[in-house]
Amino acid sequence: MQEFGKKNMAVKLSDLGINVGIAHWNLSPDDLVKKALELGQGVLNDTGALCVNTGKFTGRSPKDKFTVKDAITENSADWGDVNIPMSPETFDKLYNKVCAYMGGKEVWVRDSYACADPKYRLNVLVVNETPWANLFCNDLFLRPTAKEIETQKHDWLILQAPSFLADPAVDGTRQGNFTIVNFTRKIILIGGSAYTGEMKKGIFGVLNFILPHDHKVLSMHCSANEGKNGDVALFFGLSGTGKTTLSADPNRALIGDDEHGWANESVFNFEGGCYAKCIDLSAEKEPEIYAAIKPGALLENIKFFPGTNKVDYADASVTENTRAAYPIDFIANSKEPSYGGQPKNIFFLTCDAFGILPPISKLTKAQAMYHFISGYTAKVAGTEVGVTEPQTTFSACFGRVFLPLHPTKYAELLGKKLDEHKDVNVWLINTGWSGGAYGTGSRMKLSYTRAMITAAMKGELANVAYTPHSVFGILMPTSVPNVPSEILLPRNTWADKEAYDKKANELAGLFVKNFAKYADQANEEIRSAAPVVMVSA
Predict the structure, then answer these.
(1) Which of 179, 192, 305, 397 is most exposed, with minimal Cβ within 10 Å?
(2) Which residues, including other chains, have CB under 8 Å from residue 512's CB and lie 6 or more apart?
(3) Per annotation, catalytic residue among 24, 65, 200, 323
């Protein structure tokens, strides 16, 4: 086996059963881009970013993600449609097949790690079939120094072979593609899909098991930033709620945009980069992301304006899920290293298309746990094919598909953190509709939402009057600087108050119905925070 580039002398691929022809170790981004261009696997856009097509899969395939059921996971994992079991024997056979497939091939290898807080560092060795996938790993994972690479021993291995297709009848998969996590062998095995997000979220899932289970660290699907005084804020929210937009603040340092841990001493980023959606991207709407798409960045599944290499970010003909991957230091106000102290404010973002929830409300500890498990937002027409009217969406802990443990485990750990840090404020922010549901009311102005978040972070809501919501019980401030007071109490914004009450009751019923699947494992404190559904006479 020939090996080129800066080799990690602590690891031999042959020891892992991977006997390749040529292994390129830790190549620079420039060299990876050059190789991808030589192999015809991508082209450069007008700002110098490498543009590739991920092929058949332009997003993750959750139904094809498996977890090996073994002594570590058997009694810990939340088995079901999210965590699909596979036997150790089935995994071993498939791993050996993938290794045999990689035999004699040219591969790209990278030493990397996850978790910016050194106490929780997870060293990751990645073996990729393409140079551009290795560029993605350079951009998204944390990058060890040259000196660290010389002796770094990996904790986990990612083996990614997009061109290898499983035989479902023999290999125990659903179809040709698969992502399999083995906690005993500490391997993430990926085949049949070139979508790079499988690697990123594979490690996220691993950390979602290890950190809460072994270290009592709350793993979180959220963004985080820090003010000039060291105050940390966390932003949770599903797609379309404004998480990226609201956490991007030129007056605050970006700790990270997607995955974090909350330990006793810190809030820390899991990653060393960003994987931003870039559909409809513009310099006006997202200047930080737009400026980050430069040499060293990777663009996936975009299209150019005809006859040019200028990206048409509005073109969704390949997928709505167009993506840009880049190191976090491509963002001008990113923090290095990517961790801060205890959070001061936590924001749960929801786009309530029913116009029921207040634009800002303060949550008790019990309500925080309940709404964390609920992970509510609503999809509106135009966001997805087939969506013609508002549809409720619940995703536990704002990332159900990434959770190996039962959602109540994360909610109870959140409650424990709030008990330990009494000065943390938890806010529910509705970036959706006011004065009526979608189609009748109007979308909350971004300027008002920013003003409310700013007021909360400045402590300006500490001494204002609050009134409880009649159905959800959450506390609504009656005044917020630079925000019209009439929009703060949502029932007052509806012309038809009875219609509001009816719709609020309907939404509460949906919350209760969703929570029912978690209720038997939730403690009494969490259950006590459920909204009150009024039964018609």
Answers:
(1) 305
(2) 530, 531, 533
(3) 323
